[in-house]
Amino acid sequence: MRVGILTSGGDCPGLNAVIRAAVLTGMVHHGLEFVGIRDGYRGLVEGDVRVLNRSSVRGTSRIGGTILGTSRTNPYEGPNGGAANVAKTLERLGIDAVMAIGGEGTLAAANRLADDGLPVVGVPKTIDNDLDATDYTFGFDTAVQIATEAGDRLRTTGDSHMRCMVLEVMGRHVGWIALHTGIATGAHVTLIPEQPRSIEWICEYVQSVYDRRRAPLVVVSEGFKLEGMDEEYSRKGLDAYNRPRLGGIGEVLAPMIEERTGIESRSTVLGHIQRGGAPSGADRVLATRFGLAAIDAITAKAWGTMVSLRGTEIVRVPMSDALGDLKRVPDHRYREAELLFG
Amino acid sequence: MRVGILTSGGDCPGLNAVIRAAVLTGMVHHGLEFVGIRDGYRGLVEGDVRVLNRSSVRGTSRIGGTILGTSRTNPYEGPNGGAANVAKTLERLGIDAVMAIGGEGTLAAANRLADDGLPVVGVPKTIDNDLDATDYTFGFDTAVQIATEAGDRLRTTGDSHMRCMVLEVMGRHVGWIALHTGIATGAHVTLIPEQPRSIEWICEYVQSVYDRRRAPLVVVSEGFKLEGMDEEYSRKGLDAYNRPRLGGIGEVLAPMIEERTGIESRSTVLGHIQRGGAPSGADRVLATRFGLAAIDAITAKAWGTMVSLRGTEIVRVPMSDALGDLKRVPDHRYREAELLFG
Amino acid sequence: MRVGILTSGGDCPGLNAVIRAAVLTGMVHHGLEFVGIRDGYRGLVEGDVRVLNRSSVRGTSRIGGTILGTSRTNPYEGPNGGAANVAKTLERLGIDAVMAIGGEGTLAAANRLADDGLPVVGVPKTIDNDLDATDYTFGFDTAVQIATEAGDRLRTTGDSHMRCMVLEVMGRHVGWIALHTGIATGAHVTLIPEQPRSIEWICEYVQSVYDRRRAPLVVVSEGFKLEGMDEEYSRKGLDAYNRPRLGGIGEVLAPMIEERTGIESRSTVLGHIQRGGAPSGADRVLATRFGLAAIDAITAKAWGTMVSLRGTEIVRVPMSDALGDLKRVPDHRYREAELLFG
Amino acid sequence: MRVGILTSGGDCPGLNAVIRAAVLTGMVHHGLEFVGIRDGYRGLVEGDVRVLNRSSVRGTSRIGGTILGTSRTNPYEGPNGGAANVAKTLERLGIDAVMAIGGEGTLAAANRLADDGLPVVGVPKTIDNDLDATDYTFGFDTAVQIATEAGDRLRTTGDSHMRCMVLEVMGRHVGWIALHTGIATGAHVTLIPEQPRSIEWICEYVQSVYDRRRAPLVVVSEGFKLEGMDEEYSRKGLDAYNRPRLGGIGEVLAPMIEERTGIESRSTVLGHIQRGGAPSGADRVLATRFGLAAIDAITAKAWGTMVSLRGTEIVRVPMSDALGDLKRVPDHRYREAELLFG
Q: pTM for the whole thing?
């Protein structure tokens, strides 16, 4: 039995640990063969693969990114796309099962391929923690850790200059990274997409912290929207020439806070360093367990399912479970953080 | 209402984050007053406390250890011990509720005090992850992360010299830290107290790795026992003069492996660095949530209960839930790791 | 004898280690008393000080920022400024010597005060490594380390997506942080203020790396200027509406590279996290040695001098040595890096 | 021209950065070919080599250890040893120059080979910083950083339990790692081989710190010797049965301190984690510069020389400069540290 593995969508620390665990256990304990499908669904559609063996995956669990490359190709598009074409490609390459590792888009395509009769299982990946079908996925913990260390650093420089520091973290649609980073760094305000707030509301906290002679720290998701402002403004803000500009929300907030409170403010946009580099120990464990469980799903021919963390256990659920709404930060979790604001 | 907080037993990254969250939310949102009880139950029995306010806990969530000190005193021992004496002390100090943060011993005493009518709630703490009443507690994630980074470092020096590296991590009775560290570092063998193994079994893996021209990495819990050897020998081994010695199991294993396989072997005993220093982001989040929930338990007068993580939520359970058997590594979790041995 | 210590200008990891070493050795071995002057020269001019003792500095060598606060006030400006007024303030506060820790501006003012007869010694501080009078100062090593770790992270995500990653680091006038970060991360091009280059020159390297199927990494100082473009354009670039915008040079370069090469490009601006947080071990050692040597300078009444690193030794030099030209990256050091470009 | 590179002796973070820089610049800018000599002089004597090209060294500057392997073989020993045999081997393999990277033993052999007419240049490597011919070498900075982070961690757990923590770091003959780690962590006593002290002297500091209600931190080199005790005892100490035991000096000191002062004491022996893992940014820069300069030495046919750091510059010196006395910690540097003891 020959298994093809692909990683699709944005990269995430832990992808290689999934691949490594799957390949090692599959080869040693189930006699499977493996190929890596290059650059996600692009490689699947174009039949671009390479053999994976023990030495391909050696030492990779502690390396960020994906050794297989990734893309945002949709396997139902293009001249070679569609289930029928993919089926032919798989047959030609002798691939009997596909392990698709990715987020909602990846899993939606994987689920459709499975519905169309192809032998596909899924592994959920989302650095933003926005998939509802699993308690957590790998990558999120690493991102929070990196953002936490950055926030710790910002606090000491903020304190020295009595500045308001604004830290923008990932999270276009959901606020999980900001929520956990805000709690971990002791942020005075945390702003997430699920909870629009006005600039006045924000400045009130900032001012009260400053009045206690503390340097305010604001953690904000990239997808946070300022209440009472049209979305484009909120996203773009105004530059020094009073024209809409293209910076992130952190770069918008800092000058607005400074203008309204008179408190010197600086923003830092963490960006891609949140998704690169060595995965945390916890993420390597979770990714490894997902890889092992995905091999079980393959040997059980449980097409259309994906692996999932529930409490402390790895279970198997329909891929469709991951395809409804995003997992947003619920109100009670935001209120937890809010208890410590100011 | 005045709340006394104590930390008891071995220290653990995250203790200060519990204290900080409890004090901040209790003061700001519930009008509570706080005192810190010094050195665990010693301070409770002796009435040794100090006022805790906002500035006492400022910036402490990212600092390891406990700002309150800790000890292993049993509140039922000594001339001032026992529930009746403690009740008098609490009355004298005007303390209306006690938050006891600690492991099994601490919680057992806290539960007994609650049974004896005292207003006590618990917060579970175990760096070893050996408490059954909660999915995880704070400190464990940090310990795994530190051990994982150490293991990563050992691998490169092992590879350079083609040595077998033995990494001894904490875990006197349970193997959780070793299990997760072994998976995260890609250890070739992981040895835990729950699964005694013979030296021959271990050496077989070590040799097979070496034969593939890889430097073997062995991760071992301090409480692992070699099968087929009396316990004292297993614990103490023999020194160069053929007498029992007092080193950890890692220091015992390395020369045994070297003697049997001829492969140069070195051991590293991580020791106390696993429990000190800044908590990981994840541990700060969990500890903060525990602190908030413990204040809820106090305002609800839910004496005799403790906070607990179940899946992604914090719940309240009877403290007695934590007092039965230790949470050992179940067989299926060890088998997961075993799939990747060799 | 009573010593006042001030920190002035941008903060820098290691400031507290200087203060701690000075206070501890001064108190214990020379019977000195200490006050901390708040917020740099602002506190000096306004007479805003607080007593420093052993407990004020306890545990601070590993904490970033400055416990004294900082500002960019010039002691020769304002109604209470000028040497005569400062002399009166010092007399009123009983301060017999001032230790001024800061960069070129700070040391220029300190030197002028010393020339005007005040008892001032200097400690050089520059995170950018732009002071000529010392081999290195504290803070620089930490900044390079943080930027190196960020660059390592960017590489794995760049490799996964085959993107060109642009990392902007500090260095408004000199390229030392970029030079060392570029070497340490194995950047394919490093761009510094001392060496203007054209966008075509940059893209040639980027393209050649991409053609070898590697993801290009570009490290750039914030003060780098694109050759053949007017400075404002170079600094501001054009936004999506073809108007000058205010992003850093990294945010300017990435879209220019993408436009010219067709290679997807992303920028990360590290910003303030480079100057916050725990100092590296090396910076703590250097800062501590500076603090000890500054006390020697004070007890020797060597007013107008500053401490300096020469090779492995700390020496004393005239403060005026630090006030000429900035220490720029010499050509031969840039050529070193250039040997590894592409 | 074909260059063989070997790494010999204990491994050290930065070795791969030397190799990478040499190979890249040598291939691209000088048209050189490269082979890696396996396992130090063993590979030289046995003619065990492999081709090194761009892809062999890709991404290795941030990886610890040595991709070439290492050993402690002496090239003048064994049936194929000696200059004449080695010369034949080099000729047979078409190797025109050898770059030997290592410590005193390695450089002594390299120098002898050069004296015997072989085309050899050296690159100094010593994690202990004990080579006199260079200000610093790579690896030392990383080791100090790792030990500093460990010391930071030990402080918080020490403070929580009011224990004396003893941290043993590397340094069999010289105390540089301990000296810098002690300064960086704010140790209350630092003990180095160059400065024997009595247990009473040590305990006096420990007691005075404890009396101020601080948890004492002792940093000790593995090669420190207790004054007034015969060396074997000092090295081995007594175990719980009053017999000489084999633990490191840290494991000897902790119980002696506890016995004499009554203060609970714990030791941590850092061991091999100090020499493994990713090099610090500073070490990668230094190693890279050494690699570049070594290629210059080779193209200049400067046989018998080695590269060296002097201040901020890389220079070329006779290898014999490294072969006299070890570079010990001078008295004035130890006195610096001593000023902050207690």
A: 0.95
Question: Does residue B218 have a pLDDT over 50?
Answer: yes
Is there a contact between A128 and A170 (Cβ–Cβ < 8 Å)?
yes
Task: Show which subunits contact B, needing at least 3 CB pairs below 8 angstroms.
Answer: A, D
C2 is in an annotated binding site: no
Q: Half-sphere exposure (CA, 13 Å, Cβ side) for D282?
A: 23
pLDDT tens digits for range B133-149 = 999 999 999 999 999 99
- Percent of chain D with pLDDT strictly greater than 90: 92
Answer yes or no: CATH 3.10.450.50 is held by domain B142-274: no
Domain ranges of chain B: 2-139+276-322, 142-274
What per-residue confidence (pLDDT) applies to D229? 65
Q: Is pLDDT of D330 > 90?
A: yes
pLDDT digits (tens, 9 = 90+) for B31-64: 999 999 999 999 999 999 999 999 999 999 999 9
The hierarchical CATH code for the domain D2-139+277-322 is 3.40.50.450
Closest CA to A246 of A231, A259, A235, A260: A235
The answer regarding whether domain C2-128+277-322 maps to CATH 3.40.50.2300 reads no
Query: D140-274: which CATH architecture?
Result: 3-Layer(aba) Sandwich (3.40)
Q: Which of A138, A83, A134 is nearest to A275 (CA)?
A: A138
Please identify every stretch of chain C with a pLDDT value under 50, giving residue numbers as ranges: 234, 238-245
Check CB contact under 8 Å for B144 and A185.
no
* CATH level 3 topology of A2-133+276-322: Rossmann fold (3.40.50)
pLDDT of res. B242: 47
The count of CB pairs under 8 A between chains B and D is 125
Q: What pLDDT is recorded for position D243?
A: 43
Helix (H) or strand (E) holding C307: strand C305-310
The model's confidence at residue B243, banded by pLDDT at 50, 70 and 90, is: very low
Domain B2-139+276-322 CATH assignment equals 3.40.50.450: yes
* Residue D230, pLDDT score: 57
Domains D2-139+277-322 and D140-274 agree in fold: yes
Residue C128 is a catalytic residue: yes
Q: Determine which one of B11, B48, B116, B128 is catalytic.
A: B128
Asked if B272 and D268 come within 8 Å (Cβ–Cβ), the reply is yes
* Secondary structure (3-state) at A223: coil
Q: Pick out the residues of the known binding site of D.
A: 10, 72-73, 103-106, 126-128, 163, 170-172, 222, 266, 272-275
DSSP for D118-187, please give it.
Answer: --EEEEE--TT---TTSS--TTHHHHHHHHHHHHHHHHHHHHHHT-EEEEEES-SS--HHHHHHHHHHT-
Contact assignment for D144 to C184 by CB distance below 8 Å: no
Q: How far is B190 from chain A (nearest CA, A)?
A: 14
Is residue A240 scored above 50 in pLDDT?
Answer: no
List the binding residues of D for substrate.
Answer: 126-128, 163, 170-172, 222, 266, 272-275
Contact D201, D190 (CB under 8 A): no
Would the CA dihedral through C69, C70, C74, C79 be positive or negative?
negative
Between CA B283 and CA B89 the distance in angstroms is 33
Does B104 show up as a binding residue in the annotation? yes
- Closest to D21 (Cβ–Cβ): which among C185, C281, C340? C340
For an interface test with C, give the residue of A127, A273, A275 to mutate (most C CBs within 10 A).
A273
Cβ neighbours of B157 in D, within 8 Å: 11, 64-65, 272, 275-276
**What is the count of residue pairs from A and C with beta carbons less than 8 Å apart?**
124
Helix residue spans in chain C (DSSP H): 15-30, 41-46, 54-57, 83-93, 104-115, 140-161, 176-185, 199-211, 231-236, 249-261, 281-299, 331-338
A51–chain B nearest CA distance, Å:
20
Q: What is the ipTM of this complex?
A: 0.94
pLDDT digits (tens, 9 = 90+) for A44-69: 999 999 999 999 999 999 999 999 99
